[in-house]
Amino acid sequence: MKDLLLISNGEPYLLGIYDNSMLVESFSFDGKAANALPQLFVEVKNKYKDIKRVLLAVGPGNLTSIKLGYVAAKTASIAFNVGYYGASSFEFNGKNPISAFGSKVFKIENGKITLDSGDAVKPSLPNSIKDIEFIENLAPIYPLPSVN
Asked: How much is the pTM?
């Protein structure tokens, strides 16, 4: 049984297939996620009949990308008839700053996410997901306050 991991908190979008928690195939794409994700999921569904979980980096990151990734992951979990699980995007870039907007980045310190200026570190698909805690039905993380 295999896991499908989607990292969609900003370009490039990454998708990995894991067998026994080890990366066996990866996909990377730039451009419009709304165009690429459906086509990619059809390809994965045709190739891998034994997906057991759909996993998502739930943010923080680019709001639109996070929302599209969440909808895609939830849709894939329904299509594959499997569970959906999420983990913080900080798990996929060494807990380094993540691009927010403009020159702003999200940082995590002592479990608290803050907004600051700086350089972001792009995420990557890990070779193993064995030590990452995925939480069932975890909602997207976007820690900016509403505009008044």
From this structure: 0.92
